[in-house]
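Write out the 3D structure for:
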Amino acid sequence: MQTFAVTIEGEDLEQVRIALNRAFIPTVGPPMDIRFVTEPVEQAHEGHRMSAVLDADTAAAAEARVKDHLPEGDYEVRAAEPWPPALTP
């Protein structure tokens, strides 16, 4: 088995995080979108991208497992990539 990161994009990622964590699929993100110059801090909101990190035999299997556990909604699942990312010198 190999570890993969699968990026998920969409709205209401808190529901995605809850669903994946219940399926024992750890998540990373989403980052907070904060507009330091044009918006007050009170208007900070959740980002629209997060990653699931999981073990699978193939990248396709990792993507399928994530898709199987997503809640109802309009989410885009990106291609799985090896985790951790390769370090370049």
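DSSP finds two helices and seven strands in the chain.
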